[in-house]
Amino acid sequence: MQGTKHIHLIGICGTAMASLAGMLQAQGHRITGSDAAAYPPMSDQLLAMGITPLQPYHEAHLDPTPDLVVIGNAISRGNVELEAVLDRRLPFTSMAALIHDEFLRNREPLVVSGTHGKTTTTSMLAWIYETASKLDTKFTPSFLIGGVAENFGTSFAVRESSPFILEGDEYDTAFFDKGPKFLHYFPSAAILTHVEFDHADIYADLAAVKTAFKRLVNLIPRSGRLIAFDGSENVTECIAKAFCPVERYGFKEGSFWKLTNFQAGAISRWTLLRQGEHFADLELPMAGEHNALNASAAAALAAGQGVPANAIIEALKTFRSVKRRLEVRAEIDGITIIDDFAHHPTAIRETLRALRGSYPGRRLVAVLEPRSNTLRRNVFERELIESLAIADRVVLAEVYQSANIPAEERLHPAAVVGALNIAGIPATLLADADAITTELASSLQSGDVVAILSNGGFGDIYNKLPAALRSR
């Protein structure tokens, strides 16, 4: 875009939309935006940039008339601002299309994709490049992350150099573009972490999810590279027709990048082999095999782009995670409260397994709000029960906005709780965050580790529970 524009973002509090707002503002544009509700961490980031989200949606937010409107992918027909945009024939676009047009041309897009681990892996890769930039400024990264990376204190940065590291989201782009966002990014190189059925609101089945990832793989040029997890048959199928070189990573013998000598704990340690030869001894201040895999994928892509091994080692050793990914929110009277974005049974399983490794011997209490479009449905009810059974105690909230899910598709939280109790895992179903806070404040004991699992605000339980514990 030439010159300074007034750009209005409908759905500005989405993670990527809030980041785009900052990126556009840094280019000198005047930014306004609206949302139904604002909550941290993105509301805090917007306010720190001097952008106050307008709430709730209203046609008056389009006065004075903006030069361009960006429609968030959560915005559907019937939204009052979207209807006004269409009626008034205002220029509009999607977030992903604008990112491509404004920020990716003449750059080197490095895209991290997969149904799990994208945000953490993207943050790791950005920090590896940032660390390497101290050795050579050509590695100075721009980045767009689906969360606030603790090392940077932000979810985005736009620099003059070529590398642009992006989280490649498989969710749809906008009401007028139902293809995944990552098809707009045209990667020079990419990571594919996992492929599982997810986003049950937009994908009919696993085959549809795999088709989306196959299309992403088909965008990578012959001169590019693809780093792909070796522990998934779905990934293997998705990369089968890649035109670029493919490097697999994981724990398997024969992997191009093999993890070996893994030592679990609050600090993970392992050796990474490259085609059977020692590449680096790595250390990461995060628990869980899944995080070691994420780190190895980031290391593999960076190494192939010329980043020195010593920069990779230093970056991972100093990596500080992402907000809402195993984030310690409070420690009160020996009780540790963890916030995690887990929104799929596989993510819940890996989160709870990681906490078992980080806090051995302590009682693990899982508090889950079924909020994602996948978790609110019964498609993974059995897998959800198996994942939650890793905990010593489970507290389940009612399904978020359950009336929006057809009754025959809806998760049955009472059935989940019943199955856990039969399996010997004490489980309770409570209405909401207030009821859960009241119950936990009276029953938690010193030594307990509480994992709060939700991809939304969860009734502000992250602040209510610590406050209730302090006032006991």
Automatic annotation (TrEMBL):
Single GO MF annotation: acid-amino acid ligase activity
Domain Mur ligase central: 112-302
GO biological process: one example: cell division
UniProt cross-references to InterPro entries, sorted A to Z: Mpl (IPR005757), Mur-like_cat_sf (IPR036565), Mur_ligase_C (IPR004101), Mur_ligase_C_dom_sf (IPR036615), Mur_ligase_cen (IPR013221), Mur_ligase_N (IPR000713), MurCDEF_pg_biosynth (IPR050061)
Pfam families xrefs: Mur_ligase, Mur_ligase_C, Mur_ligase_M
Domain Mur ligase C-terminal: 324-456
Protein name: UDP-N-acetylmuramate: L-alanyl-gamma-D-glutamyl-meso-diaminopimelate ligase
Native source organism of the sequence: Terriglobus roseus
